[in-house]
Amino acid sequence: MDVVAVGVGGAGGRIVDELHRDDAGRSVSYLAASRVFDTDTSSLGALDRVPSDARHPFGTLEFDGSGADSDADAARDAAADQATELRRELDEVITTSVTGILLVAGLGGGTGPGATPVLAEELTRVYDRPVHCVSVLPTGDDETACENAARGVEALDSVVDCQIAFDNDAWIGEDDSLEDRLPALNRELADRLGSLLVAGEVEAASPVGESVLDETDVAATLDAGGLATIGHASAPVSKFRDVEDSLVGRLKGSLLEDASDMERREAVTSTLQWAVRGQLTLDCDPAESTSALVLFSGPPDWLHRGAVADGRDWVAELSTNAELRSGDAPVPGGDSISVLVVFAGIERAPRIEDLQWYGG
Ligand SMILES: Nc1nc2c(ncn2[C@@H]2O[C@H](COP(=O)(O)OP(=O)(O)OP(=O)(O)O)[C@@H](O)[C@H]2O)c(=O)[nH]1
Ligand SMILES: [Mg+2]
After folding, report:
1. In this predicted model, what pLDDT tens digit does every residue of 49-73 receive, in sequence order?
2. How far apart are alpha carbons 132 and 300 in whole angstroms?
3. Which residues sit with Cβ closer than 5 angstroms to ligand 2, an ion?
4. How far is ligand 1, taken at its centre, from the CA of residue 165, in Å?
5. How far is the CA of 151 from the centre of ligand 2 (A)?
6. CATH fold of 226-346
């Protein structure tokens, strides 16, 4: 897809910053442009990759440029007063080639959950493009944050096409400090979003897979609405070579085309299982999804046809109620195998039910 990413609030801005980094490192670009809106001018100033003229403070009269301090109602009112101005900042970048608008916000503070639904409503009113939101959920120890998030998820549910959820709580160990972990979490999230947004965007010169996803498959998967969760795993193919750790072994290991049928099968199967059973961005039961997507990529020799077909069947069985789209993307000369899975159209997930208890 070719998206305009719009960060709202501190977390939104930092994640859009990471999307720029991710996009710059890929051979095909998915990021047409970005904008970041915040009530806090110092958060805007601390961004790295988002161009300066793409950073816009708002609500400066109300908040004096120092953020909404978790007051989501006040942030919503400030955004509503300036909705037209904010949307106009996007007019010049939402060109005909743009296939979607990706809002990004942490829903535990004030600016994110307050302003994002207002902006989403304004954008869906004016543009005939899908509007998706990356909704970051707070950790479980702060009541105000949980209440803001519960209300934010609900307000966004009625205005955006789909919310791709990222649950900080599931990604932070008991002894971790959130602050220390944020850069790594933002990188991981940007990497998964990037992998999804480039799925189906192939370089002209690259070989075609057995079954190919195109960008309309990504849009159609997210079109299921509700919540979406992304799983991803990647492993060097050398990991699946049964070679002793010796010089001879390493030389042998570099001859990837020598991999046995069993090694190639194992590489596809275990990477898929890590993608689904490792850490999804939001924990959920795939059986709750109404649409799903799975994409296998790696060196052409390693995309074992039988294992890819079995893997697809396995995902279809887990997501029994979902329409499943799948594909493979050969990466000539690549040295790792990766699997991306998406479950969308989810209405129920344990963490969302926890949050609803606060927002009820
Ligand atoms: N994954 C991730 N989560 C973040 C990050 N920064 C903050 N969060 C989470 O998102 C929630 C909202 O934080 P911010 O985005 O800073 O809040 P805000 O929208 O700027 O709202 P105010 O500062 O109150 O105006 C916090 O409760 C954290 O759980 C980030 O960089 N990455
Ligand atoms: Mg802030």
Report:
1. 999 999 999 999 999 999 999 999 9
2. 32
3. 10, 40, 67
4. 14
5. 17
6. 60s Ribosomal Protein L30; Chain: A; (3.30.1330)
Task: Check pocket membership of 138 for ligand 1, CB cut-off 6 A.
Answer: yes
User: Is ligand 1 within 6 A of the CB of residue 69?
Assistant: yes
| Domain limits, CATH 3.40.50.1440, in the chain | 3-198
pTM exceeding 0.90: yes
Cα 72 to Cα 20, 55, 163, 227: the distances in Å are 27, 20, 19, 21
Least confident span in 18-27, 150-159, 192-201? 192-201
Is any atom of ligand 1 closer than 6 Å to the C-beta of 13?
A: no
Return the CATH class of domain 3-198. alpha beta
Tens of pLDDT, residue by residue over 82-137, are: 999 999 999 999 999 999 999 999 999 999 999 999 999 999 999 999 999 999 99
Q: Which of 134, 151, 34 is nearest to 94 (CA)?
A: 34
User: Does residue 14's CB lie within 6 angstroms of at least one atom of ligand 1?
Assistant: yes
Q: What is the pLDDT of residue 203?
A: 62
Atom of ligand 1 nearest to the CA of 69: 24
Rounded to whole angstroms, the Cα distance separating 349 from 235 reads 28
Q: Does the beta carbon of 281 sit less than 6 angstroms from any atom of ligand 1?
A: no
CA dist 149 and 160 (Å) reads: 15
In the chain, which residues fall in CATH 3.30.1330.20?
Answer: 226-346
- Is any atom of ligand 1 closer than 6 Å to the C-beta of 73? no
* Beta strand residue intervals within the chain, DSSP E: 3-8, 31-38, 55-57, 100-106, 131-137, 162-167, 227-236, 291-298, 323-330, 336-346
Name residue, tokens 């194992």: 266
CA distance 312 to 324: 9
> pLDDT digit string (tens) for 281-292?
999 999 999 999
pLDDT of residue 200: 76
Give 173's pLDDT tier (boundaries 50, 70, 90): confident
Q: How far apart are CA 343 and CA 226, in angstroms?
A: 10
| 133: β partners | 103, 163
Which of the two residues, 317 and 200, has the higher pLDDT score?
317
